[in-house]
Amino acid sequence: xxxxxxxxxxxxxxxxxxxxxxxxxxxxxxxxxxxxxxxxxxxxxxxxxxxxxxxxxxxxxxxxxxxx
Length: 68
Hints:
Elements: H1 24-38, H2 49-56, H3 60-67
C-alpha cells in the first residue's frame, strides 16, 4: 500500500452539507464537479457521460450539464 488516498468517485451524499449562510446551490455544484473529476483514473482514456454517471452515481442529465 502506498498510503495514498482512494481516488474513486464519492457519491454526493458523502460531501458535507452547506452551513448556514453559505450558498447551498454553489456547494452542491462544486461537490458534483469534484465527483466528476474523481471519476477519472490514470489509464482510463476517454470516458463518456454514461460512464461518468455510472461511476459517480449522478444522473446522466446532470453529468451532461457538468461536462458540456
